[in-house]
Design a protein that fits this description.
The protein has 201 residues and is of the alpha+beta class. Helices cover 32% and strands 12% of the residues. Helix 5 runs parallel beside helix 6. The longest helix has 17 residues.
Length: 201
């Protein structure tokens, strides 16, 4: 038994009219006579057609850019790999001995457990004093860091002091004193410490 076709309600007819206005016909010469146009009535709130909703979603902005144009985040290599990739500015033989823990350490500072605000001035003071005293190789101990939940909406990076110290050593007033930075040998703390080879006075 054939199913009886029902007429469109005014709301459905209004929605169908919007869809037809946004769609491009595949065959303009053909007319769709299956549904007769109903008299247009203003709907209080008619939902946007699927095509229009998709267009609105594509315009969502992320920091002033569209979602489609948002750049992918680059994953940085581990700190030890970034340090090993840097150019060797000291004597190659001495650099190899330093990496193997064979060069004598002439001074050391332990920043383990300090905050960034506490650690930076102490590091600057230590490096400047070591350079003024004519020392060549000093050890900076940061610790490897540990996971901690501070309750902040943006979690702190593990070992943030360990990641920050090489940046301090390569910038500002320390740049003129520091010749080379390398991860320490395991006998001197491994990944929780750095060798800092200073320039000559």
């Amino acid at each position: 038994m054939a199913r009886k076709r029902r007429d469109l309600t005014p709301d459905e007819a209004e929605l169908w009219g919007r869809v037809k206005r946004t769609a491009a016909p595949l065959h303009p010469e053909r007319r769709d006579q299956a549904v007769a146009p109903a008299p247009e009535t203003k709907a209080a709130t008619a939902p946007a057609p699927p095509r229009a909703q998709a267009a609105d979603l594509s315009k969502l902005s992320l920091g002033g850019r569209s979602a489609a144009a948002a750049p992918a985040h680059r994953v940085q290599p581990p700190l030890s790999e970034r340090l090993s990739r840097q150019a060797v500015r000291m004597d190659n033989k001495s650099y190899g001995r330093m990496r193997r823990g064979k060069l004598p350490v002439e001074g050391r500072i332990d920043l383990h457990g300090l905050t960034l605000a506490e650690a930076q001035p102490r590091l600057i003071s230590f490096v400047l004093a070591s350079h003024a005293a004519g020392r060549r190789l000093v050890l900076v101990i940061t610790g490897k860091g540990r996971d901690q939940d501070t309750g902040d909406p943006i979690p702190l990076r593990r070992g943030i002091l360990r990641h920050q110290v090489p940046q301090w050593l390569g910038s500002g007033q320390l740049r003129a004193c520091v010749l080379q930075v390398s991860e320490a040998h395991r006998r001197h703390g491994g990944s929780g410490a750095f060798y800092v080879y200073l320039r000559r006075k």
